[in-house]
Amino acid sequence: MVNETQKFDVVIAGGGSAGAVLASRLSEDRDRRVLLLEAGQAYTPANTPDVIADANRVGGDRDHDWGYHTQDHLGLGHGVNAIRGKVLGGSSGVNAAVAIRARPSDFARWAAHGVEGWSFEDVLPIFKAMENTPAGEDAWHGRTGPFPIRQRTMEENTPSMRAFVLAAERCGLARVTDFNGAEQHGVSPYTLNVVDGKRINTGMAYLTEDVRRRPNLTIRGCVEVDSVVFEGRRATGVRLVGGETIAAGQVILSAGAYGSPAILMRSGIGPPSHLRELDIPVIVEAPVGQRLKEHPFYYNVYALKPEARSMTPVAGAILWTRSSEAGADELDLHISGTHIFDPAQSPTGGAIVLACSVTLPKSKGSIRLASRDPRVMPLIRFNFFEDRSDLRRMMEAVRLSRKIGKTAPFSDVVELEMTPGNDVQGDAALEKAIIAQVDGYSHPTSSVPMGGPNDPGAVVDAGGAVRGVDGLRVVDASIMPDIISAPTNVTTIMLAEAISRKL
Asked: Which of 139, 444, 457, 497 has its CA 20 to 30 A from that of 101?
């Protein structure tokens, strides 16, 4: 069944952090007919439920998540939840709303893959144009863009979060005034896309009521894309789960680091041996899903003393530093202070999490199809700690986190260390605890990476165009040539802004 009632110039599959941006920007041209397809609910800004809008509710719920988990049992002894938002705004509707850009050295590593136009000097004007913030220096910030970015203050934070920042300073970390400014090495309250307690996702910021009234923009919610339709090697539309086919002059996949590679592979673009295993005709041989990256995440949790057990707001502060193995100008470790924790699990009714992460992991994951059926969860593997450098650096982060845990004024407000626990001492015990409990930071990237003509691992070019076919692009975190050392959301939005200017 082909939808002939309306033909579209552009069909965007996925209305998340990138897709909502693309729909808004591309429909600014009133002669361009744009269709945005979102698998989850397509809420308007006014009717967005609290589970999506309330910044203190992180991770969504079963109705707004894809329900994915990884197949890492062999290497880690357990799988890892792979949280991805299934709602207009995507994961920007369920994340912790951290709004920190990638660093210049991150873009320098992208350039090493042969892509042009993505240096920090190239993208800083785009970061500035997309944001509105009242703080920071004009050289680094925009004031009138659609995406709000606000600096949380010490006074807004909980007593224990303030104590975390002060204890980190006592451990030698500098106070950073603006992570999106000139210097990121140190500790500070978070920079967030939160306004008056509301998480402003891309569906709210970019798809305002005025934008939705454009006659050339159509938004459909609760619609899942199965595959791209081709005539020869030209994309001519998409096929939905259920069989409906929608014609398009151009198709853009913005289904995320799991969804976009899965759609590509179901469409016949991917590793040929894998596609043939599932009886999928091969259109283009491509290394789809072979360079998946994710930040490993470990929770150093402390029970708070009853007099300091306030846990709101949940997102508080972050420490960004370098390991002993970091390269030049790299900051490869995070310690993220949050109250994203069930207080009932604390013996005192309150807790603070110092979550440690290696933000420039060397281990590569993968994504494959378990079935040709689009309703079947793909096979995701993070392969955390496959490269032992990642484990060594994670242990450095946890040791620093525990040092802060024993430093006043933080030590004055905590009752006890819950994980790994005081009985875990020494390298062997700590390594075992980290491997047993490692989680993901929910920052997957690089499963459909950009690259220059000499990069054999690339799937798309510097503008997101899929190699070997016409009329098909991928624009989301999956096309990052390598993972960045920051939370990925703001940089994903910037990617969509940048590519939309070229279309």
From this structure: 457
The Cα 495–Cα 449 span in angstroms is: 13
Cβ-Cβ contacts under 8 Å for 103 (sequence gap 6 or more) = 120, 184, 329, 331, 484, 485, 486
Domain 153-189+296-360+385-437 coded CATH 3.30.410.40? yes
Strand extents, DSSP E, 66-197? 68-69, 81-82, 131-132, 147-148, 150-151, 186-189, 191-192, 194-195
The answer to whether 443 is a known catalytic residue is yes
- Strand-pairing partners, residue 477, are none
pLDDT tens digits along 428-455: 999 999 999 999 999 999 999 999 999 9
Distance, CA of 456 to chain centre: 25
The helix or strand, by DSSP H or E, that contains position 3, with its residue range, turns out to be strand 2-13
Domain 2-53+82-101+208-292+444-500 is in which class? alpha beta
As a residue count, the chain comes to: 503
Structure tokens, 437: 């409990």
φ and ψ of 305, to 5 deg: -60, 150
What is this structure's pTM?
Answer: 0.98
What are the structural domain ranges in the chain? 2-53+82-101+208-292+444-500, 153-189+296-360+385-437
